[in-house]
Amino acid sequence: MIELAPSILSADFARLGEQVRAACEGGAAVIHVDIMDGHFVPNLTIGPPVVKSLRRATELPLDCHLMIENPDEFIPVFADAGADWISVHQEAVRHLNRTLHLIKSHDCQAGVVVNPATPVETLSEVLDIVDYVLVMSVNPGFGAQKFIPSTLHKMRRLAEIRGQRGLSYRIEVDGGVALETVADVVRAGAEILVAGNAVFGSGNPKKNAEALLKAAMEAALLKV
After folding, report:
1. Is the dihedral of CA 175, 118, 79, 43 positive or negative?
2. How confident is the model at residue 224 (pLDDT cuts 50, 70, 90)?
């Protein structure tokens, strides 16, 4: 099943609730929230108070992507603020097994993220724990970056491993997902499509979400 997860990183924060509702009307299934600390990535974004406000603005699952150092310290806080899904970077976590179990202990879906230069093979020992794997198709830190085509093989490889091992994690992609790239990522195996600039960058978020989802569904049908 293909799901669209608009990223609020590109939204107008002065009208955040309104923009999120528009994206939901356009078919969004999840709201993606990029949490950056200025250390793990060269940018600062938002914290638990915004997540708490978002929780009041939408009933959709909140997918909190922690691009931060020492995520174990903040997982309980984001869960309390209303996160439904929490993902952490393989590159930022020292004890990945423990961190993923910590997420699950707070009744959240647990995800693991890999940067463009990180092989998916580094996840082999936790793929039976995670609910989803997020493939970064840009280097994390900023929105509106250009899609890195070489990341497509990771989505294909994750789909292959899932089949071989009989696992059930879902495959998410984040970075440069737009009308020009969405068919490629869907054909490669991505099922949860994070899109920020393509939804909120310009124009009507509802219409943008509808167009992106339509293109994704068409690619999924062709894949079958």
Report:
1. negative
2. low
Residue 133's contacts (CB-CB under 8 Å, 6 or more residues apart) are: 111, 112, 113, 114, 120, 123, 127, 158, 169, 170, 171, 172
What's this model's pTM, rounded to 2 decimal places? Answer: 0.96
Residue 144 backbone zone (phi > 0: left; psi -120 to 50: alpha; other: beta): left
Beta-sheet pairing, 62-67 with 85-89? parallel
| CB-based contact 127:165 (threshold 8 Å) | yes
Residue 114's φ and ψ, nearest 5 degrees, are -125, 135
Do the Cβ atoms of 219 and 202 come closer than 8 Å?
A: no
Locate 219 and state its tokens.
């690619």
The mean pLDDT value of the chain amounts to 95
List active site positions: 34, 174
| Helix, coil or strand: residue 71 | helix
Q: Are 14 and 198 in contact (CB under 8 A)?
A: no
Distance CA 40, CA 180 (A): 29
pLDDT band at 141 (very low <50, low <70, confident <90, very high): confident
